[in-house]
Amino acid sequence: MTTASQVLPFLELNRTISDAGREWQRRAREFARDVVAPTGVALDRMDAADVVADGSPFWDFLAQAHREGFTKLSGPAELGGLGLSRLEEFLAMEEITTGDAGLSAVLFLAPFSAAFAYQLGSPELVEEIARPYFSGADPRLHSCWAITEMGHGSDMLTGHTPSLVSDARGDCVAHRDGDGWVIDGAKSTWVSSGATATHVTLYCGIDGEPLDRGLLAVLPTNLPGISQGPPIDKHGLRALNQGQVVFDGVRLPAHYVLMGPDDFSIAVHSVHTLANVAVAMLAIGTGRAAYEGALKWTGERIAGGRALAEHQLTKNRLFRMFMALEAGRALTRAVYTYNYGEGDEGRLGSLQHSVAAKVFVTDASMALCEEALQLCGARGTLREGVEFADGSRFHPEKLMRDAKSYRIADGENTFLELIGGSHIVAEMQAAQAAAEVPSAV
């Protein structure tokens, strides 16, 4: 099945990309076209419960992605990962996201627990969680990231921002139990892959402590006392199951804990610099799919006796789409490779740059999808999409629903701007204090 996306690949402006990187980009483009896009459309039409049921196309997709390496692109080679650079990983993931953003999010989150175990865990944890995942022996292995709660959404990301963190207490908390912990409470119904994940990367509070003190842990979801709620029925990203993860007296062995309360704010800061730019990367694919589909449609649609693309105003509109997309693409790629590179070397990336990429690109992606639907006219509102001359289809209505979700995911955009601005000001004030520069009177 050919879709509108991947029809017109972007001009690659980076002349330093390796042959291996270009080869993975090509493979990912074909995988997106032949597997990701049609699977995403099929899952978008299904009930949420059916998406995760046995026999769903979701499981075939995940198994094929494992076989072809798309769940372990930058994973450590010594454990079975492909060891690609962060730039090469970005190239492949952009292509996959252009096929379907929800399924791309599943693949992006899949190695979370294994990667955290490898980078921060004990040798015991590496053998228990990281090696089995990167070996690819079990294609159903995949992770979720559990940080938000029903009583705490975007504010869970303020644990690293002293001017914003509150004295609020978490809904999901850990209690000391000898040399281990016991966890009670629930994470929100918005945990991505929460209904299906075999492992969870957990950010939880500590009983009686504010949100800036907690635990970072990785653990299997089959531990006694853990239950996973049904997937929620939602507006967009319907191929990405989201559901609640509940903890009822779950005993957490000490070796599952990667960072404790004294380092928790650093753990939140670190994951925030990575997660926000990752959302921007996913949104780039959605915006790109909208642009490519609109470009193809306007080249075929006859209006006023000639192709819509030949009209002067349409050329202006297409160029504005192209310009916004290229700007977002350049920002996101730069921040992604920098922040993930810093993280791989044990350093913190730039939080304000990550927030800037997330807010700018998700806003731009929403505007691109809206413009694409507008250019398609009434046909753009159809669930079955618009049909091209070659029989392929373009789904601007679906893309617009997907794009809307990303303006809320991993922090609501307006609140993220407050976090980003707070860090800019804090760094400025720290520099002033270090230089003993007085404030202007």
From TrEMBL:
Q: Name one Pfam family in it.
A: Acyl-CoA_dh_M
Gene Ontology terms for molecular function: acyl-CoA dehydrogenase activity; flavin adenine dinucleotide binding
* First-level EC class: oxidoreductase
What keywords does the record list, in alphabetical order?
FAD, Flavoprotein, Oxidoreductase
Report the sequence similarity comment from the record: Belongs to the acyl-CoA dehydrogenase family.
Domain Acyl-CoA dehydrogenase/oxidase C-terminal: where? 277-415
Q: Which PANTHER family match?
A: ACYL-COA DEHYDROGENASE, ISOVALERYL-COA DEHYDROGENASE, MITOCHONDRIAL-RELATED
Q: Where is the Acyl-CoA oxidase/dehydrogenase middle domain?
A: 144-250
Q: Which GO terms describe its biological process?
A: butyrate catabolic process; fatty acid beta-oxidation using acyl-CoA dehydrogenase
This chain's source organism reads Capillimicrobium parvum
Q: What is this protein called?
A: Acyl-CoA dehydrogenase
Enzyme Commission number(s) from the entry: 1.3.99.-
Acyl-CoA dehydrogenase/oxidase N-terminal domain residues are 21-136
The record's InterPro entries line, in alphabetical order, gives: Acyl-CoA_Oxase/DH_mid-dom, Acyl-CoA_Oxase/DH_mid-dom_sf, AcylCo_DH-like_C, AcylCo_DH/oxidase_C, AcylCoA_DH/ox_N, AcylCoA_DH/ox_N_sf, AcylCoA_DH/oxidase_NM_dom_sf
Cofactor names: FAD
